[in-house]
Write a structure and sequence with these properties.
two-stranded antiparallel ribbon; 194 residues; 2 strands; elongated; mainly alpha
Amino acid sequence: MQINLRKANAIQSEIRRAINETGNIPSTVSVSEYTKDVSVDVQKATVEWQLALQRKVALTNALYAIRTAVAAANANYNVNDILTEVARLEAVMAINSQVANMEVARSLDEIQGRIQKLKEAPVDSPRAALYGERYNQVATSVVTEADVANAKEAVKTLKRQRQDLQDKLLGLNVTTQINLSDETVAVLKGEGIL
């Protein structure tokens, strides 16, 4: 049986859910002096334990068979490379987004004007006493308007590139097929997953 990668992902989620539902498989049985037939109760618990264990192993084998097939398909179509490139674009986009939102540098004329104003202010003014050395300095960003504009444009370009790659991934997830073995299909049908 063939399924696409998108369906394989959904099936893997269902298998994981089924495995988690089984929880810990009880491997003990309690009997008391009032138990009518101890051997029957122990045998019944043993059979239930073995069946639950077999079910969990079969589901786990099916899960990893699908994961192996998906990994091979992903390698064949360079999906991991595409995912890595998407992550790189997002990281560079985050850097450029920070730059795009930074304060722009003050003009050199404004800085020099403020410094001149500081020089002309009386040394013993209440403001100087209150703010101390901070009052004698002018802080400015070093980011230019061009830096901000370039960063905003880079974010737009990176978003388009990321969207193109995500569209390509979506197409691969829908069109790429993997084969499920008859054994895996039987397990999944038995569980009601297929």
